[in-house]
Design a protein that fits this description.
Helices cover 33% and strands 22% of the residues. It is an alpha/beta fold and 224 residues long. The radius of gyration is 20 Å and the shape is globular.
Amino acid sequence: MCALYREAPRLTEQGKRVVSTDELTGVQALERKHPGLPLAPGQVERREFEYIRHGTLSFIVSRDVVSGHVLAPSAGPTRTEADFLAHVQGVVATDTAATGWHFVVDNLDTHRSASLVRWVVAESGLDIELGEKGKCGILHNRASRAAFLSDASHRMVFHYTPKHCSWLNQVEIWLSILVRKLLKRGSFLSVDDLKAKVLAFIDYYNRTMAKPFKWTYQGKPLVA
């Protein structure tokens, strides 16, 4: 994973894109019941503890490792296999001239689904037998699908973080920025309001704040 981040600028020069992708699920549209109290000398801003629930949304986000831009963010009530595939397709559609894509993802089943395999086969122009889910071939199980999706010879390559190491996915850093700067202190009148404000924040971030993260971890064991 660290080698991929290190090679990302070179891959970009070759027309390939490296993105990190993840979901932020169960984001609540919470409306503060009463206005907060502003800053005052010797006092921090105070917020009313009561709130009104307006439902939840799940966001799927991809961030370009080299430019720092957030690409084709998705928002909806679910994070299904179909939702993830639609998001990946949306990301790829942002740059039709790209010769290849590398996606950094964790080990959710939606990231190694049968529909994702079929789409990669079509996009890579492959003419192969896929087998049958639960029985044989590439579609047989999670491991066989993940092995196929991580094949470096394909136009779309998926890189899976090691188990219990989702922090290796750089988009996790960006999601923490979203939580701190918007979600934690926000008040949202509805799920539509929540979606609109998140998308507006992403647009603002892309225009004014986007830059590559300085990745210092070298892939060495954290514990001797």
